[in-house]
Design brief:
Elements (H helix, E strand, L loop, with lengths): L6 E3 L2 H10 L7 E3 L4 E5 L3 H13 L3 E5 L2 H11 L3 E4 L8 H12 L5 E6 L4 H10 L3 E4 L4 H12 L3
Parallel strand pairs: 1-2, 3-4, 3-5, 5-6, 6-7
Length: 155
């Protein structure tokens, strides 16, 4: 991530077209591997809406519909970012956030709280438990993508 590629390519067709168009790119060709995101939300409609937006933005997305499944899935798939609702059956989002932060640490995984709760006390609790960002619903797609891209950083 310290060097700037001459050409960024996403997807096999784009890769093939780039190689056919300019074979001289050589070792500076870099495949852009989509970041892995996991969305954990018990509202199926909201889950589908968020996933559709993220997939259209070329992210790889996995889902879970409750906190316990979200924790298990994050342990197994090791996403780059977890988007986490707070009010869910089985396991509250704060509990999932805290468990992930204890197990994974702060550098390897970014956690974004994505919730209808818009109270300062919840925002402070999220930060104290290790969340990297807090987004209140309703949100804009541009705002969500800005937060995600900011957490992923350059390259």
């Amino acid at each position: 991530r310290d060097w700037r590629p001459v050409c960024e390519v996403s997807g096999m067709e784009a890769l093939k077209a780039t190689i056919e168009a300019d074979v001289a790119v050589g070792p500076f060709l870099r495949l852009t591997i989509p970041a892995g995101l996991q969305v954990v939300d018990d509202d199926r409609l909201m889950l589908d809406l968020i996933c559709d937006c993220l997939r259209k933005a070329s992210f790889e997305v996995t889902t879970a519909e409750n906190g316990a499944d979200g924790l298990a899935a994050a342990r197994a798939s090791k996403p780059d970012i977890v988007l986490l609702d707070l009010m869910m059956p089985d396991m509250h989002g704060f509990d999932v956030c805290q468990a992930l932060r204890v197990e994974v640490g702060s550098d390897a995984l970014k956690i974004v709280i994505l919730t209808a709760k818009n109270f300062e006390v919840d925002k402070r609790a999220a930060k104290r438990l290790g969340a990297d960002a807090y987004i209140s619903k309703p949100f804009t797609v541009d705002g969500l993508l800005a937060v995600i891209n900011g957490l992923l950083g350059p390259g």
